[in-house]
Amino acid sequence: MNIDQKLIFVTGKGGVGKSYICAMLAHNLSSMHGKKVLLIESESTGSLAKYFEHAPVGYKPVEVFSNIFLSQVNTQDALSEYLNLFAKIPSWAKFGPLSKLIDLVAYGAPGVKEILVVGKVCYEFKQIEEGKSDFDYIIVDSPATGHVVSLLEAPWSLSNFISTGMVAKQTKWMCEILGDKNSTGILVVANS
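The chain above was modelled as a monomer; its predicted structure follows.
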């Protein structure tokens, strides 16, 4: 990890301590460097909150320690936020006639979970790059090593199918963010 990289995906085999490393990185950036950190938990384990002696959190970032905010990304909230931001469909629509369609897309279509999770992460990072965020760094407690590949490849995979329009433009900037080694890093945690 390079301190110049402001988006860090932490992965490793299950049980090697990747959540602990995420918490330590966030604490280091916050306490030693005075940075505001957004920790994103990409799976619904809720394990990151315990390292800060905090109750599990939801989708909206919650300050769990001084200058450390935690968000637990889930497919349905990420899709709802995406539809609100880019298609101007209000979040309350998930309770109306569109709810079954939203559920079908969020849980039924292959690859949707990965693109929504990585899309949320890239969107938050883009906000940092454009000076529209209060956060300085994003640390992602990513899935285990075998699953992180499909998460990080999701924008490229989608761009192979969609070449024009709004989604194509979005996958383009997502690929640029993920492919920029100066701003994005991957930290693999392993047992010795």
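The beta strands are 7-12, 37-41, 62-65, 68-72, 137-141, 184-189.
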